[in-house]
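Re: duplicated header lines in exported structure tokens

Our pipeline writes sequence and tokens for each protein into one text file. With two proteins the header for the second block appears twice in some exports. Here is an export where it did not happen, for reference. First protein block:
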Amino acid sequence: MKRNYYIVGLILLTFFVISFFTNILGALNQSVSESFGLTETMAGFLPFSFFIAYGVMSIPSGFLLEKFGEKRMLVLAFSLALAGALGFASSPTFTVFMISLFTIGTGMAMLQVIINPLLRVSGGEENYAFTSVMAQLIFGAASFISPQMYSYLVVNIDKGAFHKPLIELFSSLVPQSMSWVSVYWVFVVMALLMIVVMLITKFPKVELKEDEKVGTKESYFTLFKNRYVILFFLGIFAYVGTEQGISYWMSKYLLTYHGFDNETIGASAVAYFWGLMTIGGILGLLLLKIFDSKVVLRWFTILAVISLLLALFGPEGLSLYAFPISGFFLSVMYPIIISLALNSVKSYHGSFAGILMTGIMGGAVVQLLVGFISDISSLRVGMMILLLPMGYILSIGFWAKPIISNKTLKLKNILKS
């Protein structure tokens, strides 16, 4: 099949948008809490509203994709994102915000299901590993940029930089003392542009491999009888809960315990968390060519635990750097858990992938737990709960028994080269 690099570029842009919409929540946490007078438990409901959509929509999206095709589903997904962003930007109340987060989250969950098979077909199977890494780099870049964009908007709107036309426009659209709502007007523009692009684009026909299809009800029943399916589902649940738990609460923690401004230094810390995660992912790719994936998972998890403990109990300077550095060590966890999981079953990989994607709702549940414990104790104690899912991830490095292990280079071959 002829490769369509325009579609590849469009998919990479879609990865950028998904990340831009998703990973800004941590930077927004304190501003949203102040605007709506939220307790920590209520603040935990914000990521819950977003990530629970993955638990609801990941598997149904696969069935809808087979029925309606990529183009219609992409337009629908971005339309949901547009509706959620525009609804809140136009009526910035707490209730509408919760509904908006779920609506946008639903759109993002659908996009995750659609774009991976499309990337394989458009870029070619022989290039899929390379294009997948490119997608993750783009994803990481957007995660770094979006908190910086938030910081730029709120700082300039709050200080009344009306000599800048864009700032003047956004200032006229948002309520006084809620400058962070301007972020959602940016989302409106991005979603609208993506809808237009999708409508005018002709998409290639995607023939799913047998192991990429969502499968039948029987395939799910068969998989759920395999204890490793449940264990790896919990692995993804634990990973996303940890990733979002650190990125979502770090800005508030740095303000609460060390007095760092959440709109500038806190937002920058969140940006560097995602930036270092991207860099760590590149290093992880190299390490996986030398060491067994379970060994890499063990060491990176131990170092991530140490980083989190330093962030929670170290002095302000150490805490400021340890939080982002933890992102570096989290970087390899998701791809390793996914690969170990899929390499641990002989069939129904499409159905299993849907089950694993449902585990992303860990980003919802863990945040509620952190918020609840923070209210009855302290934010530090609440964030210490993240050591539990990290401990579970560490255990995967010991009990996982994949049918196929990652291929590594022999030391003698390395020395010869």
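Second protein block, exported in the same file:
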Amino acid sequence: MAQFVPFEQNVEVLGQFIFTLVNATPSGKEYRLHILSKYGIDSIELNSWYSQQQCLKAFEEISIVSGSNILFDIGKGIPEYAIFSPQIDSLEKALRAIDIAYAMNHRGGEIGYYDLIRFDSKARLAKMICTTPYPSEFDRGIITAMLKRFKPKDSVNYSVLLNLRKPTRLHGGDSCTYLIKW
């Protein structure tokens, strides 16, 4: 699957998720609302459900007009506005929580997943596979924000890199693999 293509046509997205997309960055909020409206997503209600397909179409148009950097910024904004359970008290737990939050905000069929397949606290390395229809830079932004927020206090440098040696959604793959360092 490529980016912006839902795994199933009947999947829905919770309004809270869309609202966060709109508000993730202060600049361009009105434009994002306009594009969502163009695809039939008007008057976003936090507890209502909306077509993922239409949301992805709007997201794709935003990407075409504004570039991939906005996708990264929107992704970074998602966890920044989220409230986390007190049990999320480590980077590993935070990275695993991405999948839980994703599942809570999507319903109606195959939605995909975020899978933390490696976490090595001593080497300060992790690897995550993201199998979703959302753009690669959006996922990288989410992971980066979680890393920034939950990394150990003595960690100064950190990075999240798309592993181009593996299949990516950028090139029609079903998933993207991210290498996480802190």
